[in-house]
Structure prediction request, 361 residues.
Amino acid sequence: MRKRRFDSLLETYGANIMRWPRRDIPGAAAFLAASAEARDRLRQVQALDRALADSAPLLDVATLRRMRVTVAARIARSPLPSPTGAVAGWQQALFQIGCGALVTLVLCVSWLAWAGIDGHTDLLDVPQTLMLAEVRF
Amino acid sequence: MGFGALAGISVEDQDHMISACRPIAARPTVPVLRSDATPRLERDRTGATDETLLAWAAAGDRMAFDELTVRHLPRVYGVVLRIVQRPAEAEETAQEAMVRAWQHAAQFDPERARFTTWLHRIAVNLAINRTRALTLQPLEDASALSDPAAGPEETLAVKERGQRLRAALGELPSRQRAALALFYDQGLSGADAATALSVSVRGLEGLLRRARQFLVTRLRDGDR
Prediction:
C-alpha cells in the first residue's frame, strides 16, 4: 500500500483499520508495521475518533421508555400495515390514467369514424354530383 | 397481555432495551423464520429475527412490532439525535420513524435490504428533512448534549475541546452528520451506511472524508 492510499483511507474511515474496506486491511497492516510515520499519523487520527466517540449522544432509559410507550400508543391507534405503498399507489395512478386515456381514445376513434364517414361521403359526393351534372348537360 | 398494558415496562424489558444499544454485529444471529403459521400467543418474539418480527407485524402483530421498537429505538434515536441535534425534535422524529416503519412493514423486502438498513434509511431521511426545517442551535445550547456524568476532574481543555467539536458537528451539513452517525456511532458497514443514506460507497466516503477534514480543521484552529 502506498502512503497516499493509506492517508486517504485513514482520513475517511478513521484509525480502526479493521473497519476499512476488507481488501485494504492486509496492505494497511503491513504498511503500518513498516512505517513509523504511518503509526504517528494513525495516533493523530485516533484523537478525533476518541473525540467523536465521546461526543456521541447519551441515551437515558426514561426517555427511551417514554418514546416506546408513545410509539406503542400511536401504533395501537394506527390501521394495520397495508401492502399498498408508494409503488402500488403509483401503479394505481398509472392504471387510472391509462383507463382515462383508453376511454378518450375510444371516443376520439368513434367520433373520427362517424365524422370521417360523413365527411368522406360529402367529399365523394361533390365530384360525383358534378360529374353527373356534366353528363346530364 | 393487551397492547395497552405496555405502559408499565418491566425491569427486564428495560434491560432488554439497554442491551439493544450494543452494536448490531454483536447480536446473536437466529435463523429467519418466515412462517406466519405460529399462533400469535405462542410466538417467541424475543428469539425471533428482526425480519421475522417485521413479517409478523406486517400481518398485524403489534406486539411483534413492539419487540422491534425495544430492539431498535435506542439506535434510531441515537442516529436521529446526532443529525437533528435537538433532543425534543429528535425524540419526535425517532418516534415518527418507528411509526412509518409500522405503516410500511408490509412493503419491506428482506431480499433487497436488511431490516436495520431499511429502518436507518427511514430515520435518516426523516431526520435530514427535519434539519432542513430547523435552524441549528448555537454553541451554548449544544452543551445540553454533553455528558452529564462528566466529573469535576475533567480538565477545562478537554471540555472546551468537546464543546468545540459539538459546535463543529452542528455546522456540518446534515448528510455528513448522518454519515458519521451511521458509520462511527452505529458501526454500520460502509455498504450499509451508504444504502441507508441512498448514496454509493464512494459517495459515503466523500461525506465521511469531508466531515472529518472539517472537524480536524475546526479543532486545530481552536487549539491555536
